[in-house]
Amino acid sequence: MMDYKLLEALSAVLHHQGFERAARHLGLTQSAVSQRIKLLEARLGQPVLVRGNTPEATDLGRRLLNHVQQVQLLEEELTLSLPQLAGTERHLRVAINADSISTWWPQAMGEFMRDHPMTLDLVIEDQDVGLQRMRHGEVAACLCASAQPVQGTRVVPLGRMRYRALAQPDFLHRYLPQGPSPEDLARTPAIIFDHNDQLQHRCLAEFGITGPFPHHICASTEGFIQLVMAGIGWGMMPELQVADLLDSGELIDLVPGYHLDVPLYWHYWRLGGESLDALAHHLEKAANQVLVPF
Amino acid sequence: MMDYKLLEALSAVLHHQGFERAARHLGLTQSAVSQRIKLLEARLGQPVLVRGNTPEATDLGRRLLNHVQQVQLLEEELTLSLPQLAGTERHLRVAINADSISTWWPQAMGEFMRDHPMTLDLVIEDQDVGLQRMRHGEVAACLCASAQPVQGTRVVPLGRMRYRALAQPDFLHRYLPQGPSPEDLARTPAIIFDHNDQLQHRCLAEFGITGPFPHHICASTEGFIQLVMAGIGWGMMPELQVADLLDSGELIDLVPGYHLDVPLYWHYWRLGGESLDALAHHLEKAANQVLVPF
């Protein structure tokens, strides 16, 4: 068997992004943590960490991290049926897209966690980066728009999130007094989340606008809504997130009747144990209540 | 005079994070943009970009970017008094902390932009990174908790944002049925924004808890609120952002009467022209309405 004391130190240094914080978390001195990492490297004959302001895993380090996280999941699985083993805490690292964490996912997760206590470490990422983190074993699950499975994982289709092109009424009146003609639409400032966000481009393309258009950039979902509410631009927003603002008329459609559906999939480690299976099943059911079915 | 066609190409490649996108924005071919960057480097005898998936500025590139952004601000300043010069669009890049973009700042900015049209590029960053971006000339303004001025900038104190330790009532009942004793508080799961977020630690330290405590990690302000609302943990939240949830009783205080105030400052380039001065003055007034005064 491998020496899990050493692997636990590695996992803690990477998870807590530093030797000092890892030591505090493990209840050890910083030098003890450092010794364990050095011993691990001496045994393997290769470095597991790149030391810097924030320590990062080498390729070897990542593979060990992947392994120790899977072992931790299996251990915690065992603890569920043998509560006397409790003491080690269950920990789940998930890559998730910004719009899911801002809408239905926390509620669904909260229900599951009543019977499956654990701590969550959520990494807010776009799909490509999220899946890459799965491939590297940095996260145990990923919620994203890609159906493409990563080796060693299962993929569960959840449903589609509906986006509408929305703006504040005064803003629309100011920029599109004659309604949404392509000429005026192309001059109306949009908000985009970041340079990877193509939702506004796809909406405009539907109306024949494929060139550049004025836009603001804001990679915060709540900031995005606030900028739209302040009459700074229009943007594609999940219906789920702004239901109240649509009901009250504080947000209205740029182009009535238009919407765009983005599919969502749950990826998770196949060897993560029964409770990752149970979680997938639970999320599938919860998503069914709130997302547009496939 | 320098050749601003070349500098504009550099600025576009960095701003749009790629040659193709920069070309689309400038209405040029990708090869024309590439030629301009090469010519710039040939004249200077040094690279201005590190080519990679996403091009990054070299030190020299950053200094040029800083310069061209200041020139752009001054030009747009001039355009305000000489509207016949219009055509170049005013562009403002700002580093801002997540809680400000999610609360009062967009409304204040929307009011200012009625008379000062511009496009915004918002970089959501913690204070240290935000100020470092100012130092490198990557952003023209920064809203953060540090009063420490960067060379060549002005600093305007805005006020303090009040945070309260909040949770969902069922959650509190489950974890703290006897009230907030230090023993029970130390066992109650918290949500933290990221590894730099010390607000929850500072709150617990007030009650004598300085060791590790169970916590989830979620670097999304909206996700943070949703996790608390789902009964997954407690967290420090800006009063401003959750006023409705406090009124309706959907969120309640972990420790009644406890709060923590975080100061906020607006940093901006001294040579950014009159309209950056006017913006600072406007934000100072707007902040006065919503933040706790110094």
Please provide a written account of the structure:
The structure is a homodimer of 294-residue chains. The radius of gyration of chain A is 23 Å and the shape is elongated. The first copy, chain A, has 294 residues and is of the alpha/beta class. In chain A, helix 1 (4-15) crosses helix 2 (19-26), helix 1 packs across helix 3 (30-44) and helix 6 (105-115) runs antiparallel to helix 13. Among the domains of chain A are: 1-84, Arc Repressor Mutant, subunit A (Orthogonal Bundle); 161-260, Periplasmic binding protein-like II (D-Maltodextrin-Binding Protein, domain 2). In chain A, the strands form three sheets. In chain A, strands 3, 4, 5, 6, 9, 10 and 11 form a seven-stranded mixed β-sheet that branches. In chain A, strands 1-2 form a two-stranded antiparallel ribbon. Chain A has a two-stranded parallel ribbon with strand order 7-8. Chain A is built from 13 helices and eleven strands. At the A-B interface, helix 2, helix 6, strand 4, strand 8 and helix 11 of A face helix 2, helix 6, strand 4, strand 8 and helix 11 of B. Chains A, B: Belongs to the LysR transcriptional regulatory family.
